[in-house]
């Protein structure tokens, strides 16, 4: 191996584990592994308990739906709350809900008072807690660590969970087979309490905004607008939904594969899950090296193909060994895809909105998983398990081809931190709800720079619109063609202040490039005005327009 190759390998290794040098991240990450082990114990116990008390394949597959559907429904609210309140507090409350659901399920199983619908109900409650913990935890990564460490941290989160997945299901299967589901539920409860203890012991803070908190509905709307105007995030969300819809057949139908096709019990099911986790663990450890060799789009395509191969192998093999080996391919594809999509969303989102973009991504990905669990369960119940797995494999190959329409861009580090903004001095005493506010920015652009200017203004429109600008337009003076005016509105004065506080260093690069095209001794002039509807009664201080120049 050359010196350069050895240096690259060393840097990959260092980048992979560097986040663990941070004591707060290390403590929460370790607690997440313990609680992840408990979650897998509970998943194995619930899935196998459901498979033993009902003969319906749909009910067994709905175990996956019951934990993912709440994430689909609640994540957008959880993301808005995580961006407006302490993410640490949101995490703690979410884990309290998960612990409560586990305590109740343990009590009901211990008393012998349970049925398929009660099991689904408490799995759903656990999913409600997960809807709040996951966006808050992933958004907190950027609060705890430096930005360049985020990809490695996300990989470590995935690697850690899948390390537990490689041993958790097998251990869970042994516990369920030896001591019964009650012991597995009790052990899971203790791991959730360990996570709550760690959150209480270690503290971290996000970047505080100098402005008041947004109302929940406004925060949701602003997050949805930012997501809708961000091409990278939309591509990641669409690919996540489709991948979740098609690939979840591997996990949703696995209890039936173990029970019906392989003729095994809970230990066989645990071994299969361990194979899946082992593949995920290997792929996670080598993820940094892989993305140095291949683009994220190529990795995602190959991951879909490996999951399709796993489905086909499960559809035809009667061997536990072959099925376990096939599941390592599925696990590797699973972790490569979800890690890549998660990091793409994180690196494309400023800190002020990252909780919301992650929650929208998580909601739609979980919606795809929930819908896929139901879909493949229905196909298996109505036709056959083999047909369901074959159909899922074919669908995964189609998802691999969607990269031609919705490519995942290569990760890049850019300045997504919000910049400071000095509130302009005004001649009128405005209230935070005063408005609408009209913003006009005047440029002087020579004819030779017009084409480049128009190209930049297209980007400028996207930048301004996704942070809150309304009714954006560009005008050219008919009598003095050198003069151009950019105009947009915000509903209130507070919305104008939020818009400026949300602009990042990357957004401001457009301003710098526009300044290079502008001619004249003075920079582009900004004017602020407040609209006054004719015939409306207004207070004296809002009786006309005012202007601010810079």
Automatic annotation (TrEMBL):
Single GO MF descriptor: transmembrane transporter activity
PROSITE patterns referenced in this protein's UniProt entry, alphabetically: MFS
SUPFAM superfamilies linked: MFS general substrate transporter
GO cellular component: plasma membrane
Membrane topology: Multi-pass membrane protein
Pfam families: MFS_3
Keyword Chloroplast annotated: no
Protein's cellular compartments: Cell membrane
UniProt-listed InterPro entries: MFS_dom, MFS_trans_sf, TM_effector
Keyword entries, A-Z: Cell membrane, Membrane, Transmembrane, Transmembrane helix, Transport
Membrane-crossing residue ranges in chain numbering: 27-49, 61-82, 89-111, 174-197, 236-255, 267-287, 299-316, 322-341, 353-376, 382-406
Residue intervals of the Major facilitator superfamily (MFS) profile domain: 24-410
Protein name: MFS transporter
């Amino acid at each position: 191996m050359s010196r350069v190759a050895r240096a690259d390998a060393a840097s990959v290794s260092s980048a992979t584990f560097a986040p663990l040098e941070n004591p707060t991240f290390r403590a929460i990450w370790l607690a997440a592994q313990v609680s992840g082990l408990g979650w897998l114990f509970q998943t194995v116990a619930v899935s196998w308990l459901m498979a033993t008390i009902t003969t319906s394949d749909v009910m067994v597959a709905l175990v996956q739906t019951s934990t993912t559907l709440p994430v689909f429904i609640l994540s957008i609210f959880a993301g808005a709350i995580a961006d407006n309140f302490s993410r640490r507090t949101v995490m703690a409350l979410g884990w309290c809900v998960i612990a409560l659901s586990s305590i109740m399920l343990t009590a009901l199983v211990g008393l012998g008072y349970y049925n398929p619908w009660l099991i689904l109900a408490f799995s759903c409650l656990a999913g409600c807690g997960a809807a709040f913990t996951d966006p808050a935890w992933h958004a907190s990564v950027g609060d705890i660590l430096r930005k360049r460490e985020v990809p490695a941290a996300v990989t470590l989160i995935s690697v850690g969970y899948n390390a537990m997945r490689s041993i958790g299901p097998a251990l869970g299967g042994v516990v369920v087979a030896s001591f019964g589901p009650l012991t597995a539920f009790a052990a899971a409860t203790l791991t959730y309490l360990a996570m709550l203890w760690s959150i209480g012991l270690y503290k971290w803070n996000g970047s505080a905004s100098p402005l008041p908190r947004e109302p929940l509905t406004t925060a949701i709307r602003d997050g949805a607008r930012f997501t809708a105007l961000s091409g990278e995030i939309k591509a990641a969300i669409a690919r996540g939904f489709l991948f979740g819809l098609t690939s979840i057949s591997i996990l949703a139908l696995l209890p039936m594969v173990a029970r019906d096709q392989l003729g095994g019990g809970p230990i066989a099911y645990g071994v299969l899950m361990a194979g899946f986790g082992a593949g995920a663990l290997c792929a996670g450890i080598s993820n940094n090296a892989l993305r140095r060799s291949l683009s994220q789009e190529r990795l995602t395509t190959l991951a879909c193909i490996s999951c399709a191969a796993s489905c086909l192998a499960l559809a035809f093999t009667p061997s536990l060994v072959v099925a376990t080996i096939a599941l390592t391919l599925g696990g590797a594809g699973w972790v490569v895809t979800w890690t890549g999509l998660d990091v793409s969303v994180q690196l494309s989102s400023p800190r002020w909105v990252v909780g919301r973009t992650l929650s929208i991504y998580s909601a739609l990905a979980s919606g795809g998983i929930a819908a896929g669990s139901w879909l493949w369960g229905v196909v298996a119940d109505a036709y056959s398990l083999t047909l369901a797995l074959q159909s899922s494999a074919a669908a995964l190959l189609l998802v691999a081809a969607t990269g031609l329409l919705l490519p995942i861009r290569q990760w890049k580090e850019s300045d997504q931190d919000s910049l400071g903004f000095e509130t302009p001095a005004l001649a009128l005493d405005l209230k935070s709800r005063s408005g609408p506010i009209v913003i006009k920015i005047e440029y002087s652009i020579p004819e030779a720079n017009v084409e480049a200017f128009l190209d930049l203004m297209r980007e400028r429109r996207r930048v301004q619109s996704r942070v809150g600008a309304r009714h954006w337009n560009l005008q050219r003076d008919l009598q003095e063609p050198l003069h151009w005016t950019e105009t947009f509105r915000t509903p209130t004065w507070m919305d104008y202040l939020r818009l400026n506080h949300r602009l990042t260093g990357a957004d401001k690069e457009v301003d710098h490039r526009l300044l290079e095209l502008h001619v004249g001794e003075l920079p582009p002039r900004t004017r602020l005005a407040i609209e006054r509807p004719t015939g409306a009664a207004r207070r004296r201080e809002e009786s006309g327009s005012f202007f601010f120049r810079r």
